[in-house]
Amino acid sequence: MSKSCNVLVVSDFNAELVSRYISADRTLPACAAASAPYGQVFQILSNESAAPDSVALIWTRPEGVIPEYAKLLAGHQSQIDRLDAEVDAFAAMIKQFATRCRYVFVASWVPTFLDRGMGLLNWGKQGAARQLARMNLRLAEQLGEAADVFMLDSQRWIDASDSPRDRKSWFLTKAPFTEKVFKAAAADVKSALRTASGQNRKLVVVDLDDTMWGGIVGDDGWESLRLGGHDHIGEAYSEFQSVLKTLVNRGIAVAIVSKNDEAVALEAIARHPEMIIRKDDLAGWRINWKDKAQNIAELVQELNLGLQSVVFIDDNPVERGRVCEALPEVLVPEWPTDPSKYADALRQLDCFDRSSITSEDRERTRMYVQERERREHLNVASSLADWHASLEVRVHASPVSASNVKRIVQLMNKTNQLNLRTRRTTEKELVQWLGDGKNRNLVAVTVSDRFGDLGLTGIVSWEQAGAAIEIVDYVLSCRAMGRQIEELMVHLAVQAASHAACDTVIARFVPTAKNRPCLEFWQNSGFTDAGDNIFLWKTAIDYPKPPFIALERDVEQAGQLAPAI
After folding, report:
1. What pLDDT does 363 receive?
2. Is the pLDDT of residue 560 over 50?
3. Which pLDDT does position 20 carry in this prediction?
4. What is the structure's pLDDT at 354?
């Protein structure tokens, strides 16, 4: 979401301050935020003309929208069934409202004021703490069924202030929270927008000496490194590595760039008994005495990523400054000098947030390891054609379904290099686009070879207009480029055109700053260059399938795949 967006704040209290902070925040995406009249939550949610194609933040006090909970706070016995029904009704209104919005963010409920409640019984059956927890869980379960609706953890906003609640402010302005809470909420909304629109980071590049472990491995030897053991500094480095490992498990790639002797450093990683990050956890490394900015650029190119996907962590401020200056697209966070704060500093970075975690995400590091093996195999192959044949590539073509739609949307929103139009979308918008009766279709391709699975890495979509089919989306993950999957996807589109008795296939390239590889593919694809970045193919001539690729399909009707959603 690089263009500006409108944010509507819907609340039962005065949330004007969060709107101002969202509008004033200069981080991307640029937003213009406005607060709906407070106390009109139900009226706005049920108003069919409210917030068309906007982003909405719904932030309410639990007692303001759930009457049975307000009764509980007043000391009355609550009817749990009625409380659940009220939460369900509120969730249903949000889900209906969300069909008119691009994204909806819903703040979790927190106590509006400090109150001991029932003391020892506050977590009992009629305790406010217990019931509020139940309400949040129930709301999360209900909203989890809706596309493009996300709950935000408002407790983080409360924790951002030493004094988050202000009853005087409530009495004067009907704003129950202090300024730092509203500021934290605005920052979280901006982060959520970047995440939902696929602008999160994919790779964290880490230094070794005094960053991954304590000490200088080239001077001290791996046996003397401070890592784990009965040493508070060693434990701090172990905790930092544990957080890195958590990122790996969530689909964030980890790589190393370090000024060291490669053999010495890799021996430490392999042999130190307290090492948590091992060689198989690494997407790649550059361990030498060259400039770190140059090493990062080369490593990112090797991994087929963009610099905007990278975070660089180094304890040395000189190295951080050099990378900041040379590679401004790389995020280089300020780093604490105390190793005991490393893990928390990494945990607090919001650039690794995800709107969904797919099976491809969880397997990303394994895929990078397999790609290293493929490159090593290429070095010994007699020719590129022999290498292609030896890979034993298998492609599974399938329609959009409930099981793959999140990954498809993720691919459309994140992929830059091999992307015909760089069309960004939400899950809801994609399903609507496919289902509006305009002869549209989309095929997702899942790729594997003898080294392992690459996962769902490509999509091609098209729409029919008269005697022509125009390719709308042509997207391939960088990790699958160069295996003639590109040609295979074009083959699928041409087959679909032939089946529909269309005589022409059109590909209309829309340039961006990052998708020149896609233009170069179409220029060499065999399609006729009609000028103005338009490429044509006549279906009287078959577009051949690469002979070494084994193709299978879920749903086939003489070459055409039907949408499953």
Report:
1. 73
2. no
3. 94
4. 80
**pLDDT band (50, 70, 90) for residue 381:** low
User: Could you tell me how far CA 332 lies from the centroid of its own chain?
Assistant: 19
CA 546, distance to chain mean position in Å, is 32
Token pair for residue 294? 């140059």
CA 269 to CA 263: how far, in whole Å? 10
Confidence at residue 382, expressed as pLDDT on a 0 to 100 scale: 57
Give the pairing type, strands 534-538 and 504-508.
antiparallel
Helix, strand or coil, per DSSP, at residue 561: coil
Quickly tell me which residue has 């690794």 as its tokens. Answer: 352
pLDDT at 375: 66
* Biggest CA pair distance of the chain: 81
- Among 371, 353, 552, 384, residue whose Cα is nearest residue 484: 384
- For the record, the structure tokens of 370 come out as 């397999």
Q: Which residue, chain included where needed, has tokens 């089946």?
A: 499
**Strand ranges inside 60-186, DSSP E:** 103-107, 149-152
Cα 113 from chain centroid (whole Å): 34
CB 441 within 8 A of CB 429: no
Token match 């430490």: residue? 268
pLDDT digits (tens, 9 = 90+) for 228-282: 988 999 999 999 999 999 999 988 999 999 999 999 999 999 999 999 999 999 9
CB 417 within 8 A of CB 481: yes
Per the listing, tokens 């993950």 go with 477
Each residue of 540-554: pLDDT tens digit? 999 999 999 999 987
Residues 6+ apart with CB under 8 A from 255: 203, 204, 205, 206, 282, 283, 284, 285, 286, 299, 303
Q: How do beta strands 203-206 and 253-259 pair?
A: parallel
Please name every residue paired with 465 in a beta bridge, in sequence order, or none if there are none. 468
Residues in the chain: 565
DSSP assignment letter at 124: S
Q: Are 226 and 233 in contact (CB under 8 A)?
A: yes
The secondary structure of 518-545 as a DSSP string is: HHHHHHTSS-EEEETTEEEEETTS--PP
pLDDT of residue 293: 95
d(CA 306, CA 330): 9
Q: How many Å separate Cα 445 from the centre of its chain?
A: 20
The pLDDT assigned to 52 comes to: 66
Residues 6 or more apart whose Cβ sits within 8 Å of residue 429: 102
475 with 418: CB under 8 angstroms? yes
518 to 482, 494, 508, 515: CA distances (angstroms): 12, 18, 11, 5
Tens of pLDDT, residues 60-94: 999 999 999 999 999 999 899 999 999 999 999 99
CA nearest 345: which of 327, 365, 363, 331?
A: 331
The rounded distance, in Å, linking the Cα atoms of 265 and 209 is: 9
83 in Cβ contact with 69 (< 8 Å): yes
pTM: 0.73
Q: In 3D, which of 281, 270, 272 has the Cα closest to residue 238?
A: 272
User: Using CA atoms, how far apart are residues 106 and 66, in angstroms rounded to an integer?
Assistant: 15
Q: How far apart are CA 68 and CA 86, in angstroms?
A: 8
| Contact criterion met (CB below 8 Å) for 474 and 419 | yes
